[in-house]
Amino acid sequence: MNIYKRMRFVLACAAVLTVAVFAQDDEVTQFDDFADDNESPAISTDAANVSANGAAATNSSANSEDVTKLDLLSVETESEAEQAAIAKQVETVSTIDAAELQNTSKTVSKAINSASGVKVRKSGGMGSEGKINIRGMEGKNIKVLVNGVPVETQGNLGLDDIPIDQIADIEVYKGYIPARFATDGAGGAINIVTKKRPTNSVDASYSLSSFNTHKASVAASHLIDSIAGDASLETGVSGYFNHSDNDYEFTSPYMKSSTGADTSVVRDHDHYTSYNVQAFANLINAWFDQVSLGVSFGAFDKQIQGVDNRIVESRAEGYNFGVSLGLDKKNFFAKNLNFSDYFSFGFAENKIIDTSRVHCRNWFSCDTAQKNVGELVSMGLPRLRTVQVHDFNNLLNFDYQFIKDQKIYWNTLIKYHKENPEDDYGAKMAQFNTAGLPGEVFSITTGLSLENNFFDSRLQNLLGFKFHYMKAEISNMPTSLLIEPAVESNDYNDFSYDESLMFKVANMLSVKVSYQHAVRLPTPEELFGDGIRVSAATSLKPEQADNFNFGISVDLQELPLVTRLRFDGDVFYSYYKDKIHYMSSAQMSTPYFNMNPIRAWGYEGDVKLDVNEWILLGTNWTFQDLRNMKYTAKQGVPKDAIVPNIPRFFMNYLAEFHIGDLFSKEDFLKVWWSANYTDEYFYGWKISSRQNRKINASFTQDIGVEYSLWDNKLGWSFEVDNITDSESFDKFGESKPGRSFATKIRYSFR
User: Fold this and answer.
1) pLDDT, average across residues 358-362
2) Spatial CB neighbours of 442, under 8 Å, sequence gap ≥ 6
3) Is a pLDDT exceeding 70 seen at residue 365?
4) Which residues, 6+ apart, have CB-to-CB distance to 561 below 8 Å?
């Protein structure tokens, strides 16, 4: 389907609104993948990308940026909410109302995957590696935040561990990270805004899904009035438990039958369990408007699933502990000057356990190794690797309204990250260090934003600047095992800046234009290496991106025959420089490096139609084109080659029927259907006319019903994902789970 056919297809869908909202051929082996899917080598610094001959992966690490710990001990303050509400009118952002999903079994990944311009690509079921792709950029380019606080280095629990019940909104920033977030990043951000708990309330839920999947969560709070003068004390606890066998059938291009066809097998070593418990106390209306103190503890246990070879024993496990302190004060020593400070400390310990003597040559043939042990590496290196991680974070915010409708914001984030890996078992067997070397990183990002509102906010302007500084102490592996590792230091500093403008032409029509020069600093994983396959990268440069966006929003109400029609459309262009990438080598230890520039452009649209008070229809679509802009012999990729393993065109659809007071007063029934279409896309870099392998197009459909009673105090839902059991893919031709079922019950007392 060429671009013109796609455009006609999109316009037709929008007009009629009938629906609602593989490794490449062996010719090329120089370049693994652009989009970080294979970015980690066969022996990784953590369990997030461990592979058996490059084929097995899991997401169970404290050190991976793709793994996120949800710290629900602090919620968005009133001043932060006011700032965000005004700023989001100008910014390139989509907001998902997670409160609408609290009675369903949907995950955070599933929720954001329905937004235009967004793909969440997973390597398996619950607990597996998941990368958020926004407008073609993914992995470490996309920052995950909770209430504006970056959490990419805290803890070791996955994005889909987060109970949807405890989230109010999910904000998706596309090719843009506001200066008020005080963090680096070149591709965008996901900001999870947690619920403000009602006082004296209990909220509990339990869901049961296919593949022996169980999810339970509970949150409770209690308010003690007038403990001293006007001061009150709010206390609470929350927690969740998740488990899945993940034993679905999948098809892998790495396993071939006697006829050369891809082989389908059942995942038999992919169990995942995680839990988290948190407690908090908020002192309200003392001198500070609020003083928040919280503690949390969580743990996980994850079997490592083979894809190329069967894995029977190797697994990853870990735990994390966190403490947080928050301070909030309006009119801080001056009228209209607001202050907040959020401090957190986290400690995590994570293990990769790979000491098996069983070694499988492929999926069907296994034997007992006599000398070499371990299953994750073809050379037979055993591992019992433990990584201890310490994280300190402090986010300081000031905002000041110096004249009416004109505000200035100053946000500063200070981070310290230290990790110490050990592997005495592996080092003894291999006769050299197999754990990697310790390292530490200190960074400061400070941002200044100016917000201007004119003509009763019909014209809004947001100008932002950020300064980034990072100092890394890196232990580099010497060329000889007889030489002590050298500690090398590297300093990074850079500026990013952005300008966003929104003009409301009429009440029903507004136009947005934005530009951002973005910066992403190297991560500890990229800098430190792992001591065997990944050497330290002391000369890495920060990534840079120039992102442009033009958008239009139309909101038509009280139309003939329909209640409301909303349309949001964007055209975007990005130019990425110094993209950080890893290219594996079987012969030697290699570091991450800065690759060629990448150019991206595309368009996206989102249409929602409220037919009447009972029926909602919608659709959104995305086209994105990413290409390599410079040829170098090292990478072996020609200029103007399409970046592989990135979907170029996809659409989402939704049809929803809902009605209230159906069987009794204050009840609510919702029946919905949703679907996703993803066009075919290249499996690898196309540098030869004979290289034409593609990942097939897919079309999946989900249905569900939801019913609640007593003003949503009791809710129940039943859902079927991929009801037609269609084959679909996320990356590299590895098929996703087929048809699955889920049911959930939720009770809220307040």
Assistant:
1) 79
2) 415, 416, 417, 470, 471, 472
3) yes
4) none
Burial degree of 16 (CB within 10 A; 0-12, 13-18, 19+): exposed
CA dist 442 and 303 (Å) reads 33
* Distance (Å, whole) CA 519 – CA 507: 36
| pLDDT, tens digit, 9 for 90 and up, residues 89-118 | 777 788 888 888 888 888 888 899 888 989
Distance separating alpha carbons of residues 725 and 721, to the nearest angstrom: 8
Cα 187–Cα 193–Cα 198 angle in degrees, nearest 5: 175
**DSSP track, 191-223:** EEEEP-PPSSEEEEEEEEETTTEEEEEEEEEEE
Judge contact between 314 and 353, C-beta under 8 A: yes
Pairing relationship of beta strands 580-581 and 681-682 according to DSSP bridges: unpaired
User: Model confidence over 698-714: pLDDT tens digits?
Assistant: 999 999 999 999 988 99
DSSP 437: -
Non-local (6+) Cβ contacts of 696 within 8 A are 680, 727, 729
**Span 550-576, pLDDT tens digits:** 999 999 987 888 889 999 999 999 999
Q: Name which of 679, 694, 691, 677 is nearest 648 in CA terms.
A: 679
pLDDT bucket at 27, cuts 50 / 70 / 90 = very low
| Rounded Cα–Cα distance for residues 80 and 648 (Å) | 36
In DSSP notation, 565-610 reads: EEEEEEEEEEEEES-EE----SSS-B--EE---EEEEEEEEEEEEE
Burial of 19 (0-12, 13-18, 19+ CB in 10 A): middle
Residues 145, 370: Cα–Cα separation, whole Å: 47
Residue 379 has pLDDT above 90, yes or no: no
pLDDT band at residue 692 under the 50/70/90 scheme: low
CA distances from 677 to 43, 471, 620 (A): 35, 44, 11
Cβ atoms of residues 300 and 157 within 8 Å = yes
Residues 6+ apart with CB under 8 A from 226: 232
